[in-house]
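FORM 12-B: Structure-to-Sequence Request
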């Protein structure tokens, strides 16, 4: 098996942290670059967290800072889920400094030096950095094997009634990515609701022995509040679903679908309109993940992250 060269664009973020560790623990992925957006808690925190997360895994992958804010709107902090520090109060040792440069430049440079259809591009936050990279050098899309996103919802949102956070934060950037001519996949809120972390799940996961990354994963899971949207039964572990898709697609049920994002100014801003039943007869623009084998997912998560330092 040849590991897939991979770029991860993220905004850590409690679930981003766990997604990064899952990716870094997995031989199927060769993570070559981590780029960071401001996301929920702002670039100072998300970059410090990304540096610490990569370092705790014992890896020296470049972490490059990108956009604090979205293309069209100022930065808006949303600390309710991840806490002020973005990691639910779980302290990690400081990582090495950021790599020099700007995310979009680093993404383009890596793609430029890669063969056709070879690089997997993962988006775990608002996709501003990815949109800037492709908007400024669109020909590089031919280097992409797949763009794998955590974004959107076909039912209701989690930041507004209509919109999921990543899609809502930068809908113009998401619209741009949805229009690129390459393979795409998406884990929406409807999928990640099936990766529900309940007290029982945490108890089962805690039976696995592991190093510092696994201990930090458990600490993060224990720190997160149950979600009102999930009836307080637990909380969805969003971003690791996107990585699990790349590692073990057999855990998922998926279908081709056409998706658009509402970029209007009204209450529907950021809503993803996903045509699961081909009512609009438009060509599919992504592989939509619909169902998840949650037992298999949590087993994969534990077995992989527990291998890290
Ligand atoms: C998404 O928003 C962020 O808070 C999470 O990290 C995830 O990427 C879920 O809506
Ligand atoms: Ca995220």
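FORM 12-B RESPONSE
SEQUENCE OUT:
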């Amino acid at each position: 098996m040849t590991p897939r060269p991979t770029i991860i664009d993220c905004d850590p973020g409690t679930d981003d942290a766990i997604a990064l560790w899952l990716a870094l623990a997995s031989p199927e992925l060769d993570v070559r670059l981590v780029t960071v957006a401001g996301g929920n808690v702002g670039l100072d925190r998300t970059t410090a967290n990304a540096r610490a997360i990569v370092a705790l895994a014992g890896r020296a992958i470049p972490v490059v800072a990108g956009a604090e804010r979205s293309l069209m709107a100022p930065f808006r902090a949303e600390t309710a889920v991840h806490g002020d520090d973005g990691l639910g109060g779980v302290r990690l040792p400081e990582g090495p400094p950021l790599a020099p440069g700007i995310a979009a430049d680093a993404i383009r440079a890596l793609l430029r030096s890669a063969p056709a259809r070879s690089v997997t591009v993962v988006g775990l936050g608002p996709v501003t950095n990815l949109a800037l990279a492709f908007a400024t050098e669109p020909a590089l899309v031919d280097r992409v094997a797949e763009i794998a996103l955590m974004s959107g919802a076909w039912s209701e949102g989690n930041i507004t009634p209509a919109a999921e956070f990543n899609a809502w934060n930068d809908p113009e950037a998401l619209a741009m990515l949805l229009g690129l001519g390459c393979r795409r996949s998406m884990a929406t809120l409807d999928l990640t609701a099936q990766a529900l972390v309940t007290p029982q799940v945490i108890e089962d996961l805690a039976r696995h022995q592991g190093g510092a990354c696994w201990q930090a994963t458990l600490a993060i899971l224990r720190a997160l509040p149950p979600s009102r949207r999930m009836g307080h039964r637990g909380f969805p572990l969003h971003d690791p679903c996107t990585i699990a898709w790349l590692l073990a697609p057999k855990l998922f049920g998926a279908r081709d679908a056409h998706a658009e994002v509402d970029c209007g100014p009204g209450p529907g801003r950021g809503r993803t309109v996903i045509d699961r039943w081909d009512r609009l007869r438009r060509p599919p623009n992504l592989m939509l993940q619909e169902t998840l084998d949650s037992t298999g997912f949590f087993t994969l998560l534990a077995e992989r992250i527990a291998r890290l330092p």
